[in-house]
Design a protein that fits this description.
The chain crosses the membrane at residues 21-41, 61-80, 87-114, 126-151, 163-183. It holds the Pfam family SpoIIM. Keywords: Membrane, Transmembrane, Transmembrane helix. 85% of the residues lie in helices and 0% in strands. It is mainly α and 195 residues long. It has one domain (3-61, 73-194). The N and C termini lie far apart (50 Å).
Length: 195
């Protein structure tokens, strides 16, 4: 069997991995909702200032990719940033806490960005996130859930058995980056024009 096949078997056979993966997807959403509901209070805090600086960086990258040749580099930039996060998350699985924090912070960033985009109708906001988010969020949380294997397999087997999960995540992130770069905005614009 190949490394990807082994990773798929691991996802099928390791109940604790699946449960952790689902729990982390829920954590991502819960943190995002909490940030949205407490947006005004958070804006006054240190956390709000940090999230605002992160959002500012994201906006600068997005604005630099208008029309022209740089537009076609956007999926590579998005993919590179997301794969970097996935690798850091995978490597930090020994800590158990860092992968959970990475999921929570990313959920918080999504929750932080949404109120700023509020002038758009909720349906448009939905389509600005969902086309690529349905692939990207499970991909990042899959790599984040690897830490649970530390308990049952130990550190060496955890990393050996989960390299395929990192590869699956990278493939999913490549697809999500393409969708985010070329389809998400177009779909949201079509929805906005229909409203």
């Amino acid at each position: 069997m190949g490394i990807i096949d082994d990773a798929v078997d691991l996802m099928i056979n390791e109940k604790s991995l699946r449960r952790t993966w689902i729990t982390l997807i829920a954590l991502f959403g819960i943190v995002g909702i909490i940030i949205i509901l407490s947006y005004n209070a958070i804006m006054q805090s240190f956390v709000g200032q940090y999230l605002q600086s992160q959002e500012s960086g994201i906006r600068q990258i997005a604005q630099s990719f208008g029309l022209g040749n740089s537009y076609y580099l956007l999926p590579f930039i998005i993919f590179g940033n997301n794969v970097k996060t996935a690798i850091i998350t995978w490597v930090s699985s020994l800590t158990i806490v860092i992968p959970i924090l990475i999921v929570a912070v990313n959920g918080g960033l999504v929750g932080f960005v949404l109120p700023g985009a509020y002038p758009n109708p909720p349906l448009v906001l939905f389509y600005l996130l969902v086309p690529h988010g349905v692939i990207e969020i499970p991909s990042v949380t899959l790599v984040s859930s690897v830490f649970i294997l530390l308990i049952s397999k130990g550190p060496v087997k955890m990393y050996k058995n989960s390299i395929g999960l990192l590869l699956i995540s990278a493939i999913m992130l490549a697809v999500a980056a393409f969708i985010e770069s070329f389809l998400t905005r177009t779909i949201a614009e079509i929805v906005a024009s229909m409203l």
